[in-house]
Design brief:
Largest sheet: 7 strands, mixed
Distance between the termini: 58 Å
Strand content: under 5%
Shape: globular
CATH architecture of the largest domain: Up-down Bundle
Number of helices: 25
Oligomer: single chain
Low-confidence stretches: none
Strand order of the largest sheet: 1-4-3-2-5-6-7
Length: 567
């Protein structure tokens, strides 16, 4: 269908992507699957309408560059602060282990060392966007396992950078490969130095001048020109377009215009990233599931089962409990959009054959399709493991109780979870001298509590045994601050059963969650978004001249109406 021209091809791709994305959302699946399915339908391996795959792939190169640019611009090492040890060291071990496991599978499939390395590198990366979307749907992004999964995913994304640097060097032949790798590393280092000098000397001045014009289109042109220009320089040096775009993103991430840059680029990135995913779908031959089922399943097994076991074991090794480790492993037990980047670069460099590339893409499709079901199976799988003798002990019996001698746990406050809200509550209770005890399973939070010398239990608050050890039956108040909605519901139900007269206050996660928490026994449910809105109302009305009493009466009436509407 070359007669359609570039605009016609683009219209067909976007229409197919829209239809696939809407269908995926209707089925409660990641939209990425819909885009891949759209590419499959308009690709050369299925009957019916066929687009010009070369034109689509040329447009998809922009998607790769913008994906890598936004990855660099969004990079935030602050996200690693709370879980830095398991994220950094555990993440590096996981990437190395998954790559090695993937290489073994590659050798077993008869691939050479270079193709096996790319296969392993592609399976080692998880989709942070898929994981975050699934965690967000379950209200678990701010949970401990959610933060661990995000930290590990960030390290996985960073591991992609050296891989894309050495792919062109790996395409070299024979005894010159080692020299090519060293040359590629030298070029990358030189480009990094040049980017650093550009970012500290030129870019701030340029951004200030462009921002002073107050022109969105000029700012957007500057950002996109920077991303594509750096990508082009990287390509001319024999490196990849993706690496140059990533460096440009890093450069922007250190400037004061990061958020403005992302606000302008992200919509453009989403469009061309969708084109990239459709182009990847066009490369998938459905016959690979019939002709090479063993290869597809072997690659998918490395990505799903291998990564699940590896992440779970590593998180356990860093002192976290089985529930946290298992949930983090399930969230990351899939392959990523950046796996497509590795596969496409490997195919272009001649390191992967069409058949292997198609099998790899098919495995990515399977792993992402399985992701929602794996994350949803976490409670049932954890319950099953708890019934096993060895693993059950890790969840049921493992706890560290620290109650200072002479401290009587009667009419006390039991705080379940030590996030930001929990820390504020701890500080307030300490200042007034009230008795309280904290239940937490984050090793970093436990260290903070240990330094304060306050009573705590290092354990899982969803466990009835842990709640009993916290003397919840004699507690006056039970405060459930957990951001994990499902965990909060379990804690409330168990606490109400063990403490019929206690006053239970819980953090909600949405209208349905608020109602369920009340039915399970919570006396009060705090609505984070609603309370933030009331605080904005209070501040605004105060500035407009209303008295404190008038504002308090208005807010109390609004809370009463909101609560009545929920019931």
């Amino acid at each position: 269908m070359e007669e359609l021209g570039l605009v016609g091809q683009l219209a067909v791709v976007l229409a197919a992507a829209l239809a696939g994305g809407l269908l995926a959302r209707a089925l409660r699946l990641p939209t990425l699957l819909g885009y891949l399915a759209a590419g499959l339908l308009i690709g050369p391996y299925t009957p019916g309408f066929v687009t010009d795959i070369q034109q689509v792939q040329d447009m998809a190169d922009l998607g790769v560059a913008l994906l890598m640019f936004s990855l660099g611009a969004q990079l935030s090492f602050r996200e690693l602060a709370g879980v830095r040890d398991v994220a950094l060291f555990g993440g590096l071990l996981q990437v190395a282990g998954s790559t090695a496991l993937g290489m073994l599978v590659g050798w077993g499939l008869g691939l050479d060392a270079r193709a096996s390395f790319l296969l392993g590198a592609a399976t080692a990366i998880s989709s942070s966007s898929v994981a975050l979307r699934l965690l967000e749907q379950r209200g678990e992004v701010g949970s401990l396992h959610g933060r661990v999964a995000v930290g590990l995913s960030l390290v996985q994304d960073l591991s992609l950078v050296p891989v894309i640097v050495i792919i062109p060097a790996l395409a070299g032949q024979g005894e010159n490969t080692a020299f090519a790798l060293l040359l590629a590393a030298g070029k990358a280092a030189g480009l990094l130095v040049a980017i650093y000098l550009l970012g500290t000397r030129v870019l701030p001045w340029l951004f200030r001048r462009v921002a002073a014009t107050r022109s969105r289109e000029l700012f957007l042109l500057t950002v996109v020109g920077l991303a594509l220009g750096t990508a082009a320089v990287s390509f001319l040096l024999g490196l990849s377009l993706a690496f140059g775009a990533f460096l440009a993103g890093l450069l922007v991430s250190e400037s004061e215009y990061t958020q403005e840059t992302l606000a302008e680029v992200l919509p453009l990135r989403e469009v061309f990233a969708v084109i990239f995913f459709v182009a990847v779908g066009m490369l998938i031959d459905p016959m690979v599931f019939r002709e090479m089922p063993g290869t597809v399943l072997a690659i998918a097994a490395v990505a799903i089962l291998g990564k699940l076991l590896m992440v779970t074991a590593l998180v356990l090794a860093f002192g976290y409990m089985l529930g946290t480790a298992l949930r983090a492993g399930l969230a990351l037990a899939q392959m990523a959009e950046f796996s497509f980047v590795v596969a496409s670069l490997g195919l272009e460099a001649g390191l992967l054959t069409e058949e292997v590339n198609s099998a790899l893409l098919g495995a990515v499709l399977l792993s992402i399709g399985a992701a929602p079901f794996l994350v949803g199976a976490a409670p049932g799988l954890l319950g099953m493991l708890q019934r096993l003798p060895l693993l059950g002990n890790l969840t049921r019996e493992r706890m560290e109780v620290h109650i200072p001698a002479g401290t009587e746990m009667v009419n006390h406050v039991v705080i379940c979870g030590l996030g930001e809200a929990g820390r504020e509550l701890v500080s307030a209770l300490m200042r007034r001298g009230f008795r309280f005890l904290v239940i937490e399973q984050d090793p970093a939070a436990i260290q903070w509590l240990r330094r304060l010398g306050v009573p705590y239990i290092y354990g899982d608050a969803t466990s009835s045994q842990v709640l009993e050890r916290a003397a919840v039956g004699q507690a006056r108040v039970v405060a459930v601050t957990l951001p994990d909605v499902y965990a909060a519901e379990t804690v409330v139900a168990n606490a109400r059963r063990l403490a019929p007269r206690a006053d239970i206050i819980a953090r909600g996660g949405g209208p349905e969650s608020h109602q369920l928490l009340r039915r399970l026994g919570a006396n009060e449910v705090v609505h984070p978004e609603f309370e933030a809105g009331l605080e904005l109302v209070r501040h605004t009305l105060h500035r407009l001249g209303l008295s404190t009493l008038e504002i308090q009466a208005l807010l109390q009436r609004r809370r009463r109406d909101y609560t009545a509407a929920e019931q």
